[in-house]
Amino acid sequence: MKVLVTVKEVATVEDEFEIDGTAIDERYLGADLNEWDDYAIEEAVQLSEDGVVDEVVTVTIGPEDCEQTIRQALAKGADRAIRVWDDTLEGVDLLDVDAKTAILEAVVEEEAPDLVLSGVQSGDDSWGATGVSLAESIDFQWAAVVNDLDHDLGDVASVRRELEGGVEELTDVELPAVLTIQTGINEPRYASLRGIRMAQRKELATKTLADLGVDESAVEGAVRLTDMYEPESETDVTVWEGGAEETAGELAELLRDKGVVA
Amino acid sequence: MSDILAIVDHRRGELREVSYELVTAGRELADETGGDLHLAVISGTVEAFAEKLDREGVDAVHTVDHGEEFNHDVYAQTVTQLYDELAPEYVLAANSVNGLDYAPAVAAELDLPIVTDVVDLAVDGESLVATREMYGGKVETTTELDANSAIVTIREGEWPAAEGTGDAAIEAFDAEIDEDAIGSTVTGFEEVAAGDVDITEADVLVSIGRGIEEEENLDIVRDLADALGATLSSSRPIVDAGWLPASRQVGQSGKVVTPDVYIAIGISGAVQHVAGMKGSDTIVAINTDPNAPIMDIADYAIVDDLFDVVPALAEEFQ
Ligand SMILES: Cc1cc2nc3c(=O)[nH]c(=O)nc-3n(C[C@H](O)[C@H](O)[C@H](O)COP(=O)(O)OP(=O)(O)OC[C@H]3O[C@@H](n4cnc5c(N)ncnc54)[C@H](O)[C@@H]3O)c2cc1C
């Protein structure tokens, strides 16, 4: 059985930042493996360690810069990686769900996995929709927001979906399927030194849209980013100033006023 | 084509609050597009639901009697057929866990764009303008659509719930469900997070988030909670890491708490966390980031390192 894991490098933002047009100024951005994808990778690697899965392949849409993040996934135990990028993508302001789906669909067609694991959402643009959209497009079954997967995979994946308010839904999903993985499903490992060394030798294939037979127009998407701003705060928060001692003193006084402590 | 179709959300025999919020959002949008607001309620006790949904501004409620609970295949097939039948301009759904389990599939099936987790909507000329957040709420964005029809999921709690009673036409919609295409079966539900203490009963919560960095560091918050006679709770990453049991998690997938005082320490205030604690009487945030979204709902804040402030505060009461 082959698993394809969607792995995204997300932008992280410093506490203080400036916005430049419809993006955060690059000076204030860092990069990290998407939190939810980390759990998806771990789940795939555990399936492979349990002997349920023969190969774990990752797919990333992103420029060369994100190879470091992809190597992290390889160091954690993925077998090989695919990175999709070209000039067309460079020019796109916002890759919407349709655009991502079109690209991932082409990769699935080439790789023919039995199971696709993706994160519930990405920490930067948080669409939360790509996995299910992909499933429909490739005619796979699916389940969104999965926080438990029974590794006894036959023709069916038994999963738990985490609903709101502490309720979980138990669901059987026929394979092939796309599962969107929720944090907490497992404990993502840190890459070991050995893993990091081995990752350098693993295959990381790069593909253009043309390689995948994806039409350029497919990634333009219908959703256009037109503005970005810091949310106007409606708050009338009282910020206590001073050193830790002073501010802790203010809070202590409040707690005494409220009768929390005598 | 200028009608709006909103798909309501329910679970285990109850309409979820977001269903009434969808009515408000849908009505606002229908007023802007000059169309009618259609609701659809799929599965469950649809007739009883429809009566409750007949609030002011609703033009029609389409009921689809099929199964007790949510099944995404049934939803996806039904919404697709309703779309073909009613030809609405926009389809609204909840950005709930279930919303995200069928709405993207409908969009893909109908080849429509999808915009998720929207906090505000407007129509500018012909174009739908949706406001959404990025980077965990640090920035807000507006997106415009180069399409005349779309699926939109709305964030829970952003629109007031619709009230009043209306005179909607309540009609059964005869969806043709292809049972062979149903590839998943719900086999049950389970309440999790029952456990050690009931954080919903606490008057004072000391709540810790990822800012605590390491499990060992939890001791300083425990000390503070002890000194205050408060109960310890947390954001999700602490529970995901296994440092506290699920019963301590505050938020959308955890518990909804309403203490007199909620002290959020090293918690950014992501929407899913805020969903669980915004009803607290007094909210105090301790966070190094002056722009963290938690500041928007806090009454008092200390913008400083928790490793300095928390011990100093515990000291005050020892
Ligand atoms: C479907 C779904 C359901 C979810 N359900 C929940 C839920 O029920 N509950 C929940 O909490 N989350 C939930 N989440 C996760 C949520 O989106 C956030 O990821 C999570 O709330 C972030 O937790 P945090 O604020 O502790 O961590 P972060 O967002 O990482 O924030 C850490 C904060 O600590 C501050 N900090 C760092 N170091 C220090 C220091 N030394 N001193 C002071 N401050 C410091 C930082 O400035 C930052 O603001 C859910 C997500 C999804 C997709």
3D architecture notes:
The complex is a heterodimer of chains A (262) and B (318). Chain A is an alpha/beta fold and 262 residues long. Chain A has helices spanning 35-49, 67-75, 87-90, 97-111, 130-138, 193-201, 209-212, 244-257; strands at 2-6, 9-13, 19-20, 23-24, 29-33, 55-61, 80-84, 115-119, 141-149, 156-162, 167-174, 177-181, 204-207, 223-229, 238-240. Helices cover 30% and strands 30% of the residues of chain A. The relative contact order of chain A is 0.17. Chain B has 318 residues and is α/β, with parallel strands linked by helices. Chain B has 8 helices and 17 strands. Chains A and B meet through strand 2, helix 4, helix 5, strand 9 and strand 10 of A and helix 4, strand 7, strand 8, strand 9 and strand 12 of B. Strand 14 of chain A pairs antiparallel with strand 9 (139-145) of chain B, so a sheet runs across the interface. Flavin-adenine dinucleotide sits between chains B (97, 136, 209-211, 235-237, 249-254, 266-268, 270, 272-273, 276, 286-289, 292, 305-307) and A (120-121, 145).
Order of helix and strand elements from N to C terminus of chain B: EEEHEHEHEHEEEEEEEHEHEHEEH
Determine the mean pLDDT of chain B.
95
The sequence of SSEs of chain A as H and E is: EEEEEHEHEHHEHEEEEHEHEEH
Number of helices of chain A: 8
Which regions of chain B contain 5 or more consecutive residues with pLDDT less than 50?
Answer: none
